[in-house]
Every structure is written in C-alpha cells, then in structure tokens.
Amino acid sequence: MTEGSDAGPGVAQPDAARGTGQPQSPSQPQSTGQPQSPSQPQSTGQPQSTGQPRSVGQPGAQLPAGRPWPTEIVASDAALRQILHGLPGVDQVGVTERAAALATRSIKRDAKLWALDAAVRMIDLTTLEGADTPGKVRGLCAKARRPDPADPAVPPVAAVCVYPDLVTVARSALDGSALDSSALDSSAVPQVLVASVATAFPSGRASLAVKLADVADAVAAGADEVDMVIDRGAFLAGRYGQVSEEIRAVREACGAAHLKVILETGELVTLDNVARASWLAMLSGADFIKTSTGKVSPAATPQVALVMLAAVRDYADATGQRVGVKVAGGVRTAKDAIRYLVLTRETAGAEWLSPALFRIGASSLLNDLLMQRSKQLAGVYAGADYFTMD
Predict the structure, then answer these.
(1) How confident is the model over 72-94, as a mean pLDDT?
(2) Could you say which of 206, 319, 360, 374 is the most buried, measured as most Cβ atoms within 10 Å of its Cβ?
(3) Is 303 domain-assigned?
C-alpha cells in the first residue's frame, strides 16, 4: 500500500495509458509527453496533468477557442449537442475501479494532519432546513469562524451556506465583510464567505424570472457565492440551450459573487450525462460545478466526483480556465473527506487542493474532523460532546 508525502494526501504512480479527455479538433495534435513526477516543479503556465487514466473515446467536436463562448454556440441545442455528445464516453467499470483503488490509499501521520486541516478549510458549513432560525445561523457562523474555541490553530471553514432569506443574518454574524476572493487562497488571511442557494432550490422548477429574482435577493443581502440548480428535466430532454441560457443569466445576475452550478447527479442517470452536464455548466460560465443539493439520493459519490474532477482538469487543459468542484451530500466522516482529497489530487491535480477550487458541502462532517484532529494530536479521541453541535 502506497503512502503519500508529508505535503498532502498520497499520490499514485502515473499510469502509462491516457485517452482524450476533452473535445478536440481532429487536426489538434494529441499530447504524447510523459506526466510529471510529483517531485518535479510544477509549471506556472497551463495546469499540469497528473497522469491518471482518462475516459477513452473518439475525438469529439471542435471546442471553440476563447471565453465567454459565442452566444450562437452556448444557446444552440444543435451546437451544444455536437460538443457534448462528442465527449469521450465514460468507462463506468474503469471509473468504479479507479475510485475503489484510491479509497484504499493510506497516508502518513503528518500528511493526515495536513489533510484534516485542509478539509476543514474546504467546508461549506451548511444548514438548509425549513426550521432554520436566525439563532441557528448565528451559531453556525460562530462555529465556522472558530470551529474549536479551545484550539485557535484550527482553521476556519470556507463558507457558510444558507437560504436567501437568512443571508443578512449570516452576513451580520460574519462582521459584514465584503467579498474578497483572495481570502480563499492558502496564503491569505482566512475569511469565511456567505453562500446562498437560489434558483428555486432544490427542484429548480420555476420560471427564469423567479430564479433571477431569487439570485438578486441573495446577492443584495450580501451573498459572496450563489449555489444554483440546473433544470434537470430540460437537460435530460436535450434542451441544452435552455439550460445554458439559464446558467448564463444567473452568472450575469451574480455580479461579483461566485457561481456554483448544482448538477444533481443523482437524477442524471448515467456518468456520461454527468460529464456532459459538467461541460455544459463550465461552457456557460460556472465558477464551480457541484454534485448535489443534498436533498436527493444518491448525492455525492466517489465515481461521480471522479468524472467531474476529470472534466474540470480537461476543461483547464483545453481553455486555461480552472473551474472548482464541490461535493455535497453524504460526506459525514473525516475518512470520507480525506478520500475525496486523495481523489482530487490524483485526478485534477495538486492545484485543486485549495478552497478556491475544491469544497465539501456538509453539516455534520466538521465535528468528526475535529475529533480526528484531536486524536492525531493527543493520541486519544475526544467525545462528541466536546464540540458544539451547531
């Protein structure tokens, strides 16, 4: 069993076989170079490949250069169908085996401490219940800023995620700090952001006007990030232009706020559809693609995350634009979180091991991370009652 370095989760040796992971022009040459070793310096140019197998298929339709994409491309069902159905097919058996193999990875103690702190920093601490109250949100914000009041070395989480009508409460509880995307970088002073779900969450079943009003309310109340849901019915019916138009309209309504696009992968039926929805969201302006609302089962799974991480890696290779990934729903233990960090490192690359490009939407996960962290430092487990339940 391979162990990782002290710098982060373990890294597998690169496999030799590689496929074509993004839509390419038939005249575009394929990359034949060997992947870099993890010990080699990373280039400061295009994001580096990490050497893991890609989905194998025939080269797809030509991907238009530049961003934002021409309106006639992202608003046309025919053009989008050519691009999305030109993606290489997803090898479901291969994805399942790859995810299972990475789940067995062990890491050294020092790397585990790093991973636990990294996972804390990547959490979107979430409460999305009909019974949510201002008091509950204030408590959540206090925990987001100081997860363990007895240990100031524990970093704050990335964001607090609430419904739009509670954004003002969260904003006030977090001192009304304005959006500063540099706060997501590991070198910057940590700042907890306010995220809000929108666009008729969780179903997405509303008119575009209602969805945009939902977004406008959240942004006006002080949301730094907006988590929108796509219309899965339109996507599954092949109305890709409609889905793209809604994402682009929400992107515009967000202004300076970051946009996370929820695919609700549990309703997309196939991993091929997960890959297509990921590319559609990125082509339409998503800053993050997100697995799930947490209201549908199955929610986040390693197989779905692997496909989405491969999509953002290939999109970055094709365009130079890095898009983040958020897993949400069912990530409850430190073991789960670390597995997703390993999956991220091995699939997308070390660049994605940052709150700027990877998030975990969760409510109960934080306490388990704190308990595991205490165990690593003290050698014994602290009881669950040592940590607040907010």
Answers:
(1) 87
(2) 360
(3) yes
pLDDT of residue 73: 60
Tell whether 274 is covered by a domain: yes
SS (H, E, C) the chain: CCECCCCCCCCCCCCCCCCCCCCCCCCCCCCCCCCCCCCCCCCCCCCCCCCCCCCCCCCCCCCCCCCCCCHHHHCCHHHHHHHHCCCCCCCHHHHHHHHHHHHCCECCHHHHHHHHHHHHHCEEEECCCCCCCHHHHHHHHHHHHCCCCCCCCCCCCCEEEECHHHHHHHHHHCCCCCCCHHHHCCCCCCCCEEEEECCCCCCCCCCHHHHHHHHHHHHHHCCCEEEEECCHHHHHCCCHHHHHHHHHHHHHHHCCCEEEEECCHHHCCCHHHHHHHHHHHHHCCCCEEECCCCCCCCCCCHHHHHHHHHHHHHHHHHHCCCCEEEEECCCCCHHHHHHHHHHHHHHCCHHHCCCCCEEEEECCHHHHHHHHHHHHHHCCCCCHHHCCCC
CA–CA distance, 330 with 336 (Å, rounded to integer): 9
Position with higher pLDDT, 124 vs 20: 124
- Supply the residues annotated as catalytic: 227, 290, 326
Prediction pTM value:
0.79
Q: What is the pLDDT of residue 191?
A: 87
Give residue 62's pLDDT.
Answer: 39
Q: Domain count for the chain, please give it.
A: 1
How does residue 7 score in pLDDT terms, banded at 50, 70 and 90? very low
The pLDDT assigned to 68 comes to 46
Q: Is residue 54 part of a domain?
A: no
Does residue 71 lie within any of the structural domains?
Answer: no
**pLDDT tier for residue 175 given thresholds of 50, 70 and 90:** confident
pLDDT of 183 above 60: no
Q: Which amino acid is at 385?
A: D
pLDDT at 243 over 80: yes
Here the CATH number for the domain that contains residue 188 is 3.20.20.70
Contact call for residues 323 and 288 (beta carbons, < 8 A): yes
Per-chain mean pLDDT for the chain = 82
Range of the domain at 247: 103-380
